[in-house]
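Summary for the steering committee. The consortium agreed at its last meeting that each partner would contribute one worked example illustrating the joint modelling workflow. Our contribution is presented below. We chose a case with several input lines so that the handling of multiple components could be demonstrated. No manual editing was applied between input and output; the record is shown as generated.
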Amino acid sequence: MTRILRAIGARTVDGIWRMGFAARFFAAILMRSGTSFARFQLTIREIFSTGVLSLIIILVSGFFVGLVLGLQGYETLQRYGSSDALGILVALSLVRELGPVVAGLLFASRAGSALTAEIGLMKTTEQLKAMDMMAVDPIARVVAPRFWGGVISMPLLAALFSTMGVFGAWFIGVVFIGVDDGAFWSQMQASVDFRYDIVNGVIKSVVFGFAVALIAVFEGYDSAPTAEGVSRAITRTVVNSALAILALDFVLTSFMFRGNG
Amino acid sequence: MSVSFPSGDTLVDVSSVDFAYDKRPILSGINLRIPRGKLVAIMGGSGCGKTTLLRLIGGQLRPTGGTITVDGQDLTKLARKDMYALRRRVGMLFQFGALFTDLSVFENVAFPLREHTDLPDDMIRDLVLMKLHAVGLRGAHKLMPNELSGGMARRVALARAVALDPMLIMYDEPFAGLDPISLAVVGQLIRKLNDALGASSIMVTHDVHESLEIVDYIYFLSGGKVVAEGTPDEIRASTDPFVKQFVNAETDGPLPFHFPSGSYRDALMEGRP
Amino acid sequence: MNRTVLDLWVGVFVAVGIAAVLFLALKVGNLASANIGETYRLQANFDNIGGLKPRAPVKSSGVVVGRVTEITFDSSLYVAVVKMDVDKRYSFPRDTFANILTSGLLGEQYIGLEVGGDTEMLKAGDTIAKTQSAVVLEKLISQFMFNKAAESPQAPAQ
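What follows is the complete predicted structure of the assembly.
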């Protein structure tokens, strides 16, 4: 019994310790971000490897999620004779929730894990230490550009995901099932509010971008410098990012949409 | 080539340095000096604290006691900014090269130049090719690090370490994992670069025979202490049991084969380590 | 290092991403239609607003002419005070009727403006005098049940 309690206690202390370190690390990234913007070429490289290389998976899954939403939404709505509202249903679910959340989860497993692996391997092969010995700050030169690359890519990917989803739903609903094209778009436009729905969705994706990018670079930087350590860090990145996205989504949703129907 | 006892101006001065990881002592009461223009080796078995000592001199670790002075500056009192200013004049070769795997050979060598100078591209190009030529790999500048053999990677890393013409070059196990030919090539390069650049060098290694050929002075480390020192000739002639064990690669002697532990018999009887 | 090709890809990515945001704003959302243009504020008091929410549309003849911005309760008159922003392009006579209507049987509620015949127009800050509260489904049902109950004793006599 005491052994279990002790183990729980040790894990809690360790978790708090890591959280504190992560906070300090976040502050260090922010303070040493000058290089990422003064030499934007560095950040552009990272936008390429996090954003552009995630495009395919985001576009394809967005389209499929849209297809499923279109089918299921139609199936449910036509029971109440309101299949014209398919556009609203699809657009609101995508823009408010599924776009940022699913794109965030995909982003964490595609780009976040790659970031962790890259930084973890650089640590394992002493590249970070070598850089530090060359009087080049690894946080400014390696970590911060990757962090900002992720932060910039994420909202764009989420918007693309939502857009593909709307097209997917339009494709299945209008082209295949035969929902009225005009009703699909006009009902959608009448009920999706720019300020409340779209801006809030973009804010969510920006917050998720910060969370995933921070977790990914932190886990990479904090990984044990062995092959096993790096692989465990990658697992932690994916798991912690998913938890962080879902928890933040709940918090943000309760802030944003309370009482606004 | 090898000069006798170190004399003249001191570049690195390590005086009564202690270091401990989580209260586990690694180094205690280390004293050593690296004179300007000389190539000094720090030797000892694996795990005797050689690499830790190198990290301390590079300022990546802070000693728990004592002082380390590099070019007149006390490392223990330097702020991060001044430490970085100092490190620009220090080159370091890591154990396995630590080349940046996402950059080509050319870009690896160009890295310190791009980071610390505002030189135009064509001048950087000339400098990089010169450094690569010095290590005999000018033809390999387009390759990526994963296309290089261990010896070539080590030489590229060496070119990168000397890209900014440092005053001090540090080598962490430059011979580890090299075949005899690459080993001799790297050894000669270390000596040649030191003399050509007018730099001073510290080399941490356990390769006695190669080191005796090229260095000016040797410190032997064991159990976190300096146990012997001298010029290569003195070392060869030494009657010190530790030095003899090390130079002749005897399995037993003052350097214990076993990690400190309790009685072997007790451990077996008890059924658990 | 192929920097130009890389830049091109990142440029394409950012452009497509921004295009997606614009698509969401203009084609999916209502940035282009309802929110653009200046508005003026009107007010109306209702006995019961039912399920009316802020941001609900204000329609006249089925055309969206504005949005509900704020709903408060006036504790001196015991009525709900609904404030709405109406597009400047449209003006309504002083005796306009404000109804709370429901789109479809279970749809969202909105305010419908029925135009009167007055020659004077409503100005910013005016209160619409004639209002009709929301139809509350429970009330309708209980009324229906009550009528049925009142009718039923006579039924056997027929």
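Chain B has ten helices and ten strands. Chain B has one domain: 10-255.
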